[in-house]
Amino acid sequence: MHGILFAANAKVTRMPTSTLEEYLESIYKLGEKGVVRPTMIAESVGVSGPTVTATLKRLQARGLITRSKSAVELTNVGQREALDIVRRHRLAERLLVDVLGMGWDEAHEDACLLEHALSPRVQAALEGYLDNPSVCPHGHPIPSAEGVIEPVVGDPLCDVGTNGEGRIVQVAEDNDELLQYLGSLGMFPGTDVKVCEVAPFNGPLLIEVNGSRYAIARDIASKILVTR
Question: Which CATH superfamily is domain 155-227 in?
Fold first, then answer.
């Protein structure tokens, strides 16, 4: 599997405010799913349209984004900045879960605060202490210091047919209640799961995890990535 390298020689500097970092991170994550619109950014960061417009102008003036019609894209430098923020966030999640023992459903919010406070020296020390983890507790890849991010390969659990088996490699990280529920079922990355039955007409899936059977909704199964 080949990693993706974004402007490896571009110098990464700390953004002057946590607000701008939050916008870059949001634009990057939204961009993984398709075209990014200002309205999507507003919903993601929880602010009004005029506030988004003003902040996007600041990012554009710094050469971190480009705008064409209603679409927003990261420049090469903006991409590198965003990947550095994502790296800090996911390392912070590993610290909170692996070292401090927090639940994986609790770590995301606190990691959002920690990501803005990690200096390059502390970040490097943390990565070494954690033995250079490749993914966050939810299975999302941690970018390297050089801006390389390895894509995660798998299929949504909802696409696995009856009697199909797979190993969980990633789950959606943006819903604490969902993470708490999946955790109660023992459905963490690295866990094997079997689809025992698939109800017709987009009905639920009957799955087996660690010897127990559960019925889960198809939309929940769509947020779980497995390798077969």
Answer: Ferrous iron transport protein A (FeoA) (2.30.30.90)
Q: How far is CA 78 from the centre of its chain?
A: 17
Contact 135, 86 (CB under 8 A): no
Q: Would you tell me how many other CB atoms lie within 10 Å of the CB of residue 11?
A: 7
Q: Where are the alpha helices (DSSP H) in the chain?
A: 18-31, 38-45, 49-61, 76-94, 107-114, 120-129, 176-184, 218-221
9 confidence band (pLDDT: 50, 70, 90): very low
SS3 of residue 37 by DSSP: coil
DSSP 36: B
pLDDT category, 208, cuts 50, 70, 90?
Answer: very high
